[in-house]
Structure formats: C-alpha cells, structure tokens
Design goal:
mainly alpha
C-alpha cells in the first residue's frame, strides 16, 4: 500500500486521486501490478480473480476516470 500512496501523491489531479484512493483495496492492488508491467494472466495468478474479473474491474475504473476527464 505504501507504493500506491507514493504513486498517488505524485498525481496533480485531486479528483483522479480521490477516485483511485476510494477504489477498493483489490482494485488498487490490480492497478499497481498493471502499472508495474504485469500481464493479466500474471495478475490473475497473484491475486486470485479470473482474467475476466480483472478486465471488468479495470474497465469500471477506466469509465470513472473517463467520466471525470470529460467533465473537466
């Protein structure tokens, strides 16, 4: 979780920071692993949910971020 906090503290957009901080812990873990370059199958093996669940979670987060960026 320290890596996630350090990453988020570097972000300049407070709304984006809020979205990422309020995401559930599993989503934060998945996002951090994805940002570190791990592929879906590797993340699946490390975290447990199926690849489809990973895609669903990432897509939900992408939609929130897209909505935020469109409203600015």
């Amino acid at each position: 979780m320290e890596d996630m906090n350090a990453l988020l503290n570097c972000m300049g957009n407070p709304q984006l920071l809020h979205i990422l901080l309020t995401a559930d812990r599993k989503m934060q873990e998945i996002l951090l692993l994805r940002m570190q370059g791990y592929q879906s199958k590797e993340i699946d093996a490390m975290t447990g949910p199926s690849e489809q669940t990973l895609y669903t979670r990432l897509n939900r987060l992408k939609k929130k971020i897209k909505k935020l960026l469109e409203s600015e």
